[in-house]
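Reply to dn_fold:

You asked what the input looked like. This is it:
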Amino acid sequence: MFAKQRLIIAGAAIGGLLALNGAAAYWAGVKAEDTLEEQHRMLAGLPLFQVKSHTYERGWFSSTETTELVFNRRLSGPYESMLPDNFKPLLNSTIRFTNHVKHGPFPGLGSFDFRPARALVTTEFDMSDATRKTLKTFFGEKEPITVINRLGFGGGGELNINVPSFDYEEALSGVKMKWKGFDMKLDYASGYKEYKTDANSPGFLLEASSKGSLAFDGVRYVSDIRPGATGIKLGTSELTVGNVQLNWKDSVPYSIKLNELVYLMTRMRVGEFINPSGEFKPSSVTLKNFRYQIVSSEQDEFVNTRGKLDFAEFNYNDKHYGPMRLDISANHLHGPTLLKLDQAISQIPFEGVDPAVLRKQYVDTIKKNGIPLLTNNPKLVINDFYLKMPSGEAILTGSLGLNGLQEADLSNSVAFLKRFEVDAKLSLPRQTLEDLVIAQARTLFMVDQTAEVQPNMTEVEDLARSLLDSQLAQWEQEKFITQDKGQLSTQLHFKQGALSINNKKVGLPWEETEDPAPADASAAK
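and this is what came back:
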Protein backbone atom coordinates (compact mmCIF):
# COMPACT_ATOMS: atom_id res chain seq x y z
CA MET A 1 0.00 0.00 0.00
CA PHE A 2 2.70 2.42 1.04
CA ALA A 3 4.82 1.40 -1.93
CA LYS A 4 1.91 2.14 -4.25
CA GLN A 5 1.42 5.57 -2.64
CA ARG A 6 5.10 6.32 -3.01
CA LEU A 7 4.93 5.40 -6.70
CA ILE A 8 1.89 7.64 -7.16
CA ILE A 9 3.62 10.54 -5.38
CA ALA A 10 6.81 10.01 -7.37
CA GLY A 11 4.86 9.85 -10.61
CA ALA A 12 2.95 13.00 -9.71
CA ALA A 13 6.22 14.76 -8.87
CA ILE A 14 7.81 13.73 -12.14
CA GLY A 15 4.69 14.73 -14.03
CA GLY A 16 4.68 18.07 -12.26
CA LEU A 17 8.33 18.66 -13.10
CA LEU A 18 7.71 17.77 -16.74
CA ALA A 19 4.71 20.08 -16.86
CA LEU A 20 6.70 22.83 -15.20
CA ASN A 21 9.58 22.31 -17.62
CA GLY A 22 7.17 22.37 -20.57
CA ALA A 23 5.57 25.59 -19.36
CA ALA A 24 8.97 27.13 -18.74
CA ALA A 25 10.17 26.04 -22.20
CA TYR A 26 7.09 27.59 -23.84
CA TRP A 27 7.54 30.87 -21.92
CA ALA A 28 11.28 30.90 -22.77
CA GLY A 29 10.42 30.32 -26.44
CA VAL A 30 8.06 33.31 -26.48
CA LYS A 31 10.68 35.54 -24.88
CA ALA A 32 13.42 34.21 -27.16
CA GLU A 33 11.35 35.15 -30.21
CA ASP A 34 11.05 38.70 -28.87
CA THR A 35 14.84 38.96 -28.51
CA LEU A 36 15.54 37.48 -31.94
CA GLU A 37 12.95 39.73 -33.57
CA GLU A 38 14.77 42.73 -32.12
CA GLN A 39 18.04 41.40 -33.51
CA HIS A 40 16.41 40.97 -36.92
CA ARG A 41 15.19 44.58 -36.92
CA MET A 42 18.75 45.74 -36.27
CA LEU A 43 20.04 43.58 -39.13
CA ALA A 44 17.32 44.84 -41.48
CA GLY A 45 18.32 48.42 -40.68
CA LEU A 46 21.86 47.97 -42.02
CA PRO A 47 22.27 49.80 -45.36
CA LEU A 48 24.62 47.15 -46.78
CA PHE A 49 21.90 44.48 -47.03
CA GLN A 50 18.27 44.14 -48.01
CA VAL A 51 16.03 41.47 -46.47
CA LYS A 52 14.68 39.15 -49.16
CA SER A 53 12.65 36.96 -46.79
CA HIS A 54 12.29 36.19 -43.10
CA THR A 55 10.29 33.49 -41.32
CA TYR A 56 10.02 32.34 -37.72
CA GLU A 57 8.49 28.98 -36.81
CA ARG A 58 8.07 28.65 -33.05
CA GLY A 59 7.59 25.26 -31.46
CA TRP A 60 7.18 24.24 -27.84
CA PHE A 61 10.74 23.20 -27.07
CA SER A 62 12.55 24.57 -30.13
CA SER A 63 12.07 27.05 -32.97
CA THR A 64 13.53 27.83 -36.36
CA GLU A 65 14.26 31.23 -37.84
CA THR A 66 15.27 31.56 -41.49
CA THR A 67 16.51 34.77 -43.14
CA GLU A 68 17.55 35.56 -46.70
CA LEU A 69 19.65 38.64 -47.44
CA VAL A 70 20.90 40.22 -50.65
CA PHE A 71 23.49 42.94 -51.06
CA ASN A 72 22.23 46.47 -51.55
CA ARG A 73 23.55 47.03 -55.08
CA ARG A 74 22.70 50.73 -54.96
CA LEU A 75 25.43 51.13 -52.34
CA SER A 76 27.97 48.63 -53.68
CA GLY A 77 27.60 49.82 -57.30
CA PRO A 78 30.41 52.44 -57.29
CA TYR A 79 32.93 49.82 -56.15
CA GLU A 80 31.98 46.85 -58.32
CA SER A 81 34.35 47.85 -61.12
CA MET A 82 37.24 47.52 -58.65
CA LEU A 83 36.41 43.91 -57.72
CA PRO A 84 37.88 40.76 -59.32
CA ASP A 85 35.66 39.29 -62.05
CA ASN A 86 35.23 35.99 -60.20
CA PHE A 87 33.95 37.87 -57.13
CA LYS A 88 31.30 39.98 -58.85
CA PRO A 89 28.75 37.15 -59.28
CA LEU A 90 28.65 36.82 -55.48
CA LEU A 91 26.96 40.23 -55.30
CA ASN A 92 23.91 38.70 -56.99
CA SER A 93 23.81 35.76 -54.63
CA THR A 94 21.47 35.31 -51.69
CA ILE A 95 22.85 34.91 -48.18
CA ARG A 96 20.60 32.41 -46.44
CA PHE A 97 21.02 31.36 -42.84
CA THR A 98 18.94 29.44 -40.34
CA ASN A 99 18.89 29.94 -36.59
CA HIS A 100 18.15 26.75 -34.66
CA VAL A 101 16.68 27.86 -31.33
CA LYS A 102 16.59 25.52 -28.32
CA HIS A 103 14.31 26.88 -25.60
CA GLY A 104 15.25 27.22 -21.94
CA PRO A 105 15.34 26.98 -19.02
CA PHE A 106 18.32 24.64 -19.67
CA PRO A 107 18.77 24.74 -23.46
CA GLY A 108 22.23 23.18 -23.42
CA LEU A 109 21.25 20.18 -21.32
CA GLY A 110 21.73 17.77 -24.21
CA SER A 111 25.41 18.73 -24.46
CA PHE A 112 25.87 18.67 -20.65
CA ASP A 113 25.70 22.46 -20.40
CA PHE A 114 23.71 23.18 -17.24
CA ARG A 115 23.71 26.98 -17.49
CA PRO A 116 20.17 28.43 -17.45
CA ALA A 117 19.08 30.66 -20.35
CA ARG A 118 16.07 31.70 -22.40
CA ALA A 119 17.46 29.91 -25.42
CA LEU A 120 20.57 28.64 -27.14
CA VAL A 121 20.78 29.68 -30.79
CA THR A 122 23.14 28.10 -33.32
CA THR A 123 23.39 29.56 -36.82
CA GLU A 124 23.68 27.43 -39.94
CA PHE A 125 24.67 29.08 -43.24
CA ASP A 126 23.24 27.62 -46.44
CA MET A 127 25.90 27.41 -49.15
CA SER A 128 25.94 26.06 -52.65
CA ASP A 129 27.95 22.94 -53.41
CA ALA A 130 30.48 25.06 -55.30
CA THR A 131 30.93 27.44 -52.37
CA ARG A 132 31.32 24.60 -49.87
CA LYS A 133 33.84 22.93 -52.16
CA THR A 134 35.87 26.15 -52.35
CA LEU A 135 35.79 26.67 -48.57
CA LYS A 136 36.71 23.04 -47.98
CA THR A 137 39.95 23.72 -49.86
CA PHE A 138 40.91 26.07 -47.03
CA PHE A 139 39.13 24.78 -43.92
CA GLY A 140 38.95 21.07 -44.65
CA GLU A 141 36.20 19.38 -42.62
CA LYS A 142 35.92 22.28 -40.16
CA GLU A 143 32.92 24.60 -40.35
CA PRO A 144 34.05 27.90 -41.95
CA ILE A 145 32.15 29.91 -39.35
CA THR A 146 30.44 29.06 -36.06
CA VAL A 147 27.90 31.42 -34.47
CA ILE A 148 26.38 30.63 -31.06
CA ASN A 149 24.04 33.06 -29.33
CA ARG A 150 23.01 32.40 -25.70
CA LEU A 151 19.93 34.44 -24.78
CA GLY A 152 19.76 35.33 -21.08
CA PHE A 153 16.56 35.54 -19.02
CA GLY A 154 16.96 39.29 -18.61
CA GLY A 155 16.75 39.99 -22.33
CA GLY A 156 20.49 40.24 -22.91
CA GLY A 157 22.85 37.50 -23.91
CA GLU A 158 26.25 36.38 -25.16
CA LEU A 159 27.15 36.03 -28.84
CA ASN A 160 30.24 34.04 -29.85
CA ILE A 161 31.65 33.93 -33.40
CA ASN A 162 34.56 31.75 -34.47
CA VAL A 163 36.36 31.37 -37.78
CA PRO A 164 38.95 28.56 -37.61
CA SER A 165 42.53 28.82 -38.80
CA PHE A 166 43.88 27.32 -42.03
CA ASP A 167 47.19 26.92 -43.87
CA TYR A 168 46.91 26.88 -47.66
CA GLU A 169 49.51 26.63 -50.42
CA GLU A 170 49.47 26.31 -54.22
CA ALA A 171 52.72 24.82 -55.47
CA LEU A 172 52.26 25.82 -59.13
CA SER A 173 51.26 29.46 -58.64
CA GLY A 174 53.44 30.05 -55.59
CA VAL A 175 50.50 31.40 -53.58
CA LYS A 176 50.57 30.85 -49.82
CA MET A 177 47.87 31.81 -47.32
CA LYS A 178 48.05 31.35 -43.58
CA TRP A 179 45.07 32.44 -41.52
CA LYS A 180 45.33 32.15 -37.74
CA GLY A 181 41.62 32.39 -37.08
CA PHE A 182 39.17 34.88 -35.62
CA ASP A 183 37.19 34.94 -32.36
CA MET A 184 34.65 37.45 -31.15
CA LYS A 185 32.61 37.57 -27.96
CA LEU A 186 29.79 40.06 -27.50
CA ASP A 187 28.04 40.44 -24.14
CA TYR A 188 24.89 42.52 -24.56
CA ALA A 189 22.16 43.78 -22.25
CA SER A 190 18.44 43.92 -22.95
CA GLY A 191 17.67 46.22 -25.86
CA TYR A 192 21.38 46.23 -26.85
CA LYS A 193 21.85 49.53 -25.04
CA GLU A 194 24.88 48.15 -23.22
CA TYR A 195 27.41 45.77 -24.69
CA LYS A 196 30.98 44.58 -24.33
CA THR A 197 32.98 43.37 -27.31
CA ASP A 198 36.21 41.42 -27.47
CA ALA A 199 37.38 40.47 -30.99
CA ASN A 200 40.74 38.92 -31.76
CA SER A 201 42.49 38.03 -35.02
CA PRO A 202 45.98 36.59 -34.27
CA GLY A 203 47.35 36.98 -37.78
CA PHE A 204 47.21 36.53 -41.54
CA LEU A 205 49.83 35.96 -44.26
CA LEU A 206 49.36 36.10 -48.04
CA GLU A 207 52.30 35.53 -50.35
CA ALA A 208 52.10 35.64 -54.14
CA SER A 209 55.51 35.06 -55.64
CA SER A 210 54.91 37.29 -58.66
CA LYS A 211 52.84 40.03 -57.01
CA GLY A 212 54.02 40.56 -53.44
CA SER A 213 52.86 39.82 -49.92
CA LEU A 214 50.59 41.03 -47.15
CA ALA A 215 50.81 40.11 -43.47
CA PHE A 216 49.39 41.33 -40.18
CA ASP A 217 49.31 40.05 -36.63
CA GLY A 218 47.99 40.92 -33.20
CA VAL A 219 44.71 42.58 -34.23
CA ARG A 220 42.34 43.06 -31.29
CA TYR A 221 39.28 45.20 -30.70
CA VAL A 222 37.65 45.68 -27.29
CA SER A 223 34.80 47.95 -26.24
CA ASP A 224 32.54 48.61 -23.28
CA ILE A 225 29.57 50.78 -24.25
CA ARG A 226 26.60 51.97 -22.20
CA PRO A 227 23.99 54.74 -22.55
CA GLY A 228 24.38 57.96 -20.59
CA ALA A 229 21.67 60.01 -18.93
CA THR A 230 21.25 62.05 -22.13
CA GLY A 231 20.93 58.91 -24.29
CA ILE A 232 24.36 59.27 -25.88
CA LYS A 233 26.49 56.11 -25.91
CA LEU A 234 29.40 56.36 -23.48
CA GLY A 235 32.32 54.11 -22.62
CA THR A 236 35.56 52.98 -24.20
CA SER A 237 36.68 51.27 -27.39
CA GLU A 238 40.19 50.33 -28.43
CA LEU A 239 41.81 48.81 -31.51
CA THR A 240 45.38 47.49 -31.46
CA VAL A 241 47.44 46.05 -34.31
CA GLY A 242 50.81 44.48 -33.64
CA ASN A 243 52.41 44.60 -37.09
CA VAL A 244 51.40 45.13 -40.71
CA GLN A 245 53.68 44.37 -43.65
CA LEU A 246 52.81 45.08 -47.26
CA ASN A 247 55.01 44.53 -50.31
CA TRP A 248 53.99 44.78 -53.94
CA LYS A 249 56.18 44.25 -56.99
CA ASP A 250 54.04 45.74 -59.79
CA SER A 251 52.81 49.25 -60.45
CA VAL A 252 49.12 49.34 -59.55
CA PRO A 253 46.91 52.17 -60.84
CA TYR A 254 44.20 53.32 -58.46
CA SER A 255 41.14 55.50 -58.55
CA ILE A 256 39.32 55.54 -55.22
CA LYS A 257 35.89 57.13 -54.91
CA LEU A 258 36.22 58.29 -51.33
CA ASN A 259 33.07 60.36 -51.61
CA GLU A 260 31.11 57.17 -52.32
CA LEU A 261 32.83 55.42 -49.41
CA VAL A 262 31.74 58.23 -47.07
CA TYR A 263 28.23 57.90 -48.51
CA LEU A 264 28.27 54.14 -47.93
CA MET A 265 29.38 54.44 -44.31
CA THR A 266 27.59 57.63 -43.20
CA ARG A 267 24.90 58.23 -45.85
CA MET A 268 26.30 61.74 -46.36
CA ARG A 269 27.27 63.20 -49.73
CA VAL A 270 30.52 65.18 -49.64
CA GLY A 271 31.06 65.92 -53.33
CA GLU A 272 33.64 64.72 -55.83
CA PHE A 273 36.66 66.66 -54.61
CA ILE A 274 38.18 64.03 -52.31
CA ASN A 275 38.63 61.24 -54.86
CA PRO A 276 42.34 60.42 -55.24
CA SER A 277 43.82 58.70 -58.27
CA GLY A 278 47.32 57.77 -59.28
CA GLU A 279 49.62 54.78 -59.18
CA PHE A 280 51.07 52.60 -56.44
CA LYS A 281 54.63 51.94 -57.50
CA PRO A 282 56.54 48.84 -56.33
CA SER A 283 56.96 49.50 -52.64
CA SER A 284 57.40 48.12 -49.15
CA VAL A 285 55.31 49.35 -46.22
CA THR A 286 55.45 48.35 -42.56
CA LEU A 287 53.48 49.55 -39.55
CA LYS A 288 54.33 48.55 -35.98
CA ASN A 289 52.35 48.75 -32.75
CA PHE A 290 49.34 50.72 -33.92
CA ARG A 291 46.72 51.68 -31.32
CA TYR A 292 43.51 53.68 -31.39
CA GLN A 293 41.42 54.41 -28.31
CA ILE A 294 38.35 56.55 -27.68
CA VAL A 295 36.75 57.29 -24.30
CA SER A 296 33.43 59.09 -23.86
CA SER A 297 32.10 60.33 -20.53
CA GLU A 298 29.28 62.53 -19.29
CA GLN A 299 29.03 65.42 -16.84
CA ASP A 300 25.49 66.65 -16.22
CA GLU A 301 24.02 67.02 -19.72
CA PHE A 302 27.37 67.48 -21.46
CA VAL A 303 29.50 64.85 -23.18
CA ASN A 304 33.30 64.76 -23.21
CA THR A 305 35.16 62.57 -25.69
CA ARG A 306 38.88 61.85 -25.83
CA GLY A 307 40.66 59.98 -28.61
CA LYS A 308 44.22 58.69 -28.76
CA LEU A 309 46.07 57.31 -31.77
CA ASP A 310 49.68 56.25 -31.86
CA PHE A 311 52.15 53.92 -33.54
CA ALA A 312 55.76 53.03 -32.90
CA GLU A 313 57.00 52.97 -36.47
CA PHE A 314 55.79 53.47 -40.05
CA ASN A 315 58.16 52.75 -42.91
CA TYR A 316 57.55 53.51 -46.58
CA ASN A 317 60.43 52.19 -48.69
CA ASP A 318 63.48 54.00 -47.31
CA LYS A 319 61.50 56.66 -45.41
CA HIS A 320 60.95 56.10 -41.69
CA TYR A 321 58.32 57.78 -39.53
CA GLY A 322 57.53 57.39 -35.85
CA PRO A 323 56.91 57.30 -33.12
CA MET A 324 53.64 59.16 -33.53
CA ARG A 325 51.20 60.31 -30.83
CA LEU A 326 47.86 62.04 -31.20
CA ASP A 327 45.74 62.89 -28.14
CA ILE A 328 42.66 65.00 -28.88
CA SER A 329 39.56 65.89 -26.84
CA ALA A 330 36.12 67.28 -27.68
CA ASN A 331 34.65 68.73 -24.49
CA HIS A 332 31.37 70.23 -23.31
CA LEU A 333 29.23 68.89 -26.13
CA HIS A 334 25.52 69.28 -25.44
CA GLY A 335 24.27 65.70 -25.11
CA PRO A 336 20.54 66.22 -25.86
CA THR A 337 21.47 68.11 -29.02
CA LEU A 338 23.87 65.37 -30.16
CA LEU A 339 21.14 62.79 -29.71
CA LYS A 340 18.51 64.90 -31.47
CA LEU A 341 20.86 65.64 -34.35
CA ASP A 342 21.77 61.97 -34.76
CA GLN A 343 18.10 60.94 -34.82
CA ALA A 344 17.19 63.68 -37.30
CA ILE A 345 20.01 62.79 -39.71
CA SER A 346 19.22 59.07 -39.54
CA GLN A 347 15.62 59.80 -40.65
CA ILE A 348 16.68 61.56 -43.87
CA PRO A 349 15.92 59.29 -46.87
CA PHE A 350 19.08 58.90 -48.95
CA GLU A 351 18.57 56.20 -51.58
CA GLY A 352 17.73 57.58 -54.99
CA VAL A 353 17.86 61.19 -53.81
CA ASP A 354 19.71 63.73 -55.95
CA PRO A 355 23.05 64.59 -54.25
CA ALA A 356 22.39 68.34 -54.34
CA VAL A 357 18.99 67.85 -52.69
CA LEU A 358 20.51 65.50 -50.13
CA ARG A 359 23.27 67.97 -49.22
CA LYS A 360 20.67 70.71 -48.69
CA GLN A 361 18.65 68.39 -46.44
CA TYR A 362 21.70 67.65 -44.29
CA VAL A 363 22.63 71.34 -44.02
CA ASP A 364 19.06 72.35 -43.16
CA THR A 365 18.85 69.57 -40.54
CA ILE A 366 22.10 70.68 -38.91
CA LYS A 367 20.97 74.32 -38.89
CA LYS A 368 17.65 73.37 -37.35
CA ASN A 369 18.89 70.94 -34.70
CA GLY A 370 22.58 71.62 -34.14
CA ILE A 371 22.74 75.23 -32.94
CA PRO A 372 22.77 74.33 -29.19
CA LEU A 373 26.08 72.53 -29.82
CA LEU A 374 27.61 75.91 -30.68
CA THR A 375 25.87 77.98 -28.01
CA ASN A 376 26.99 75.78 -25.09
CA ASN A 377 30.70 76.62 -25.20
CA PRO A 378 32.13 73.53 -26.95
CA LYS A 379 35.90 73.12 -26.98
CA LEU A 380 38.31 71.07 -29.07
CA VAL A 381 41.70 70.41 -27.45
CA ILE A 382 44.83 68.93 -29.03
CA ASN A 383 46.48 67.67 -25.87
CA ASP A 384 49.44 66.24 -27.74
CA PHE A 385 50.55 65.65 -31.31
CA TYR A 386 54.04 64.40 -32.08
CA LEU A 387 55.48 62.78 -35.19
CA LYS A 388 59.10 61.95 -35.84
CA MET A 389 59.83 62.34 -39.56
CA PRO A 390 62.93 61.89 -41.73
CA SER A 391 63.44 65.66 -41.84
CA GLY A 392 62.61 66.50 -38.21
CA GLU A 393 59.73 66.58 -35.75
CA ALA A 394 56.16 67.82 -36.06
CA ILE A 395 54.75 69.04 -32.72
CA LEU A 396 51.38 70.65 -32.09
CA THR A 397 49.37 71.53 -29.00
CA GLY A 398 46.39 73.85 -28.81
CA SER A 399 42.69 74.41 -28.40
CA LEU A 400 39.74 75.80 -30.33
CA GLY A 401 36.58 76.84 -28.55
CA LEU A 402 33.45 78.96 -28.73
CA ASN A 403 32.65 81.12 -25.72
CA GLY A 404 29.35 82.87 -25.14
CA LEU A 405 27.98 82.42 -28.66
CA GLN A 406 24.37 83.52 -29.13
CA GLU A 407 22.14 82.39 -31.96
CA ALA A 408 21.93 85.99 -33.20
CA ASP A 409 25.73 85.98 -33.72
CA LEU A 410 25.32 83.48 -36.55
CA SER A 411 23.88 86.19 -38.78
CA ASN A 412 26.81 88.53 -38.07
CA SER A 413 30.13 87.18 -39.32
CA VAL A 414 32.28 89.54 -37.22
CA ALA A 415 30.32 88.85 -34.02
CA PHE A 416 30.55 85.12 -34.79
CA LEU A 417 34.34 85.20 -35.28
CA LYS A 418 34.85 87.16 -32.06
CA ARG A 419 33.30 84.29 -30.08
CA PHE A 420 36.19 82.01 -31.03
CA GLU A 421 39.10 81.40 -28.68
CA VAL A 422 42.19 79.79 -30.19
CA ASP A 423 45.58 78.88 -28.75
CA ALA A 424 48.18 76.86 -30.66
CA LYS A 425 51.89 76.09 -30.63
CA LEU A 426 53.43 74.52 -33.72
CA SER A 427 56.86 73.24 -34.71
CA LEU A 428 57.37 71.77 -38.18
CA PRO A 429 60.39 70.70 -40.28
CA ARG A 430 61.06 73.23 -43.01
CA GLN A 431 61.60 70.39 -45.48
CA THR A 432 58.12 69.03 -44.78
CA LEU A 433 56.54 72.41 -45.54
CA GLU A 434 58.61 72.65 -48.72
CA ASP A 435 57.46 69.19 -49.84
CA LEU A 436 53.83 70.18 -49.29
CA VAL A 437 54.21 73.41 -51.27
CA ILE A 438 55.93 71.64 -54.17
CA ALA A 439 53.29 68.92 -54.28
CA GLN A 440 50.56 71.58 -54.40
CA ALA A 441 52.39 73.46 -57.15
CA ARG A 442 52.72 70.30 -59.25
CA THR A 443 48.98 69.70 -58.87
CA LEU A 444 48.12 73.25 -59.94
CA PHE A 445 50.28 73.20 -63.08
CA MET A 446 49.72 69.59 -64.14
CA VAL A 447 47.89 69.14 -67.45
CA ASP A 448 46.56 66.14 -69.33
CA GLN A 449 49.29 63.83 -70.61
CA THR A 450 47.92 64.10 -74.16
CA ALA A 451 48.40 67.89 -74.26
CA GLU A 452 50.90 69.08 -76.88
CA VAL A 453 52.67 71.48 -74.52
CA GLN A 454 53.73 70.03 -71.18
CA PRO A 455 54.94 72.28 -68.34
CA ASN A 456 58.54 71.90 -67.16
CA MET A 457 58.00 70.46 -63.69
CA THR A 458 61.58 71.18 -62.66
CA GLU A 459 60.98 74.88 -63.29
CA VAL A 460 57.66 74.67 -61.43
CA GLU A 461 59.39 73.13 -58.40
CA ASP A 462 62.19 75.71 -58.47
CA LEU A 463 59.64 78.53 -58.62
CA ALA A 464 57.72 77.06 -55.68
CA ARG A 465 60.91 76.80 -53.59
CA SER A 466 61.89 80.38 -54.44
CA LEU A 467 58.50 81.77 -53.45
CA LEU A 468 58.53 79.78 -50.21
CA ASP A 469 62.05 80.95 -49.33
CA SER A 470 61.04 84.54 -49.89
CA GLN A 471 57.89 84.23 -47.81
CA LEU A 472 59.63 82.48 -44.91
CA ALA A 473 62.40 85.08 -44.89
CA GLN A 474 59.82 87.86 -44.67
CA TRP A 475 57.91 86.13 -41.84
CA GLU A 476 61.12 85.53 -39.92
CA GLN A 477 62.19 89.15 -40.35
CA GLU A 478 58.80 90.27 -39.03
CA LYS A 479 59.21 87.78 -36.13
CA PHE A 480 56.10 85.78 -36.97
CA ILE A 481 58.18 82.58 -37.07
CA THR A 482 61.52 81.35 -35.79
CA GLN A 483 63.89 78.96 -37.55
CA ASP A 484 66.36 76.73 -35.75
CA LYS A 485 68.20 73.68 -37.13
CA GLY A 486 65.68 73.12 -39.91
CA GLN A 487 62.63 73.55 -37.66
CA LEU A 488 59.99 76.26 -38.12
CA SER A 489 58.16 77.29 -34.94
CA THR A 490 55.36 79.69 -34.12
CA GLN A 491 52.43 80.17 -31.79
CA LEU A 492 49.00 81.71 -32.23
CA HIS A 493 46.55 83.33 -29.82
CA PHE A 494 43.08 84.62 -30.71
CA LYS A 495 40.53 85.92 -28.19
CA GLN A 496 37.72 88.48 -28.28
CA GLY A 497 38.58 89.35 -31.88
CA ALA A 498 42.28 90.08 -31.23
CA LEU A 499 45.00 88.00 -32.93
CA SER A 500 48.66 87.62 -32.08
CA ILE A 501 51.22 85.40 -33.83
CA ASN A 502 54.43 84.59 -32.00
CA ASN A 503 53.41 87.20 -29.39
CA LYS A 504 53.15 89.88 -32.07
CA LYS A 505 49.78 91.56 -32.60
CA VAL A 506 48.26 91.21 -36.06
CA GLY A 507 45.70 93.70 -37.29
CA LEU A 508 42.40 92.27 -38.48
CA PRO A 509 39.95 93.86 -40.95
CA TRP A 510 37.37 94.84 -38.31
CA GLU A 511 40.07 96.59 -36.25
CA GLU A 512 40.98 98.93 -39.08
CA THR A 513 39.55 102.46 -38.97
CA GLU A 514 39.02 104.61 -41.99
CA ASP A 515 41.29 107.64 -42.42
CA PRO A 516 39.45 110.88 -41.57
CA ALA A 517 38.22 112.80 -44.58
CA PRO A 518 40.40 115.83 -45.43
CA ALA A 519 39.06 119.14 -44.10
CA ASP A 520 37.32 121.37 -46.62
CA ALA A 521 39.76 124.01 -47.85
CA SER A 522 37.26 126.86 -47.62
CA ALA A 523 36.30 125.88 -44.09
CA ALA A 524 39.96 125.91 -43.10
CA LYS A 525 40.20 129.48 -44.16
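The chain has a mean pLDDT of 83.
Hope that clears it up.
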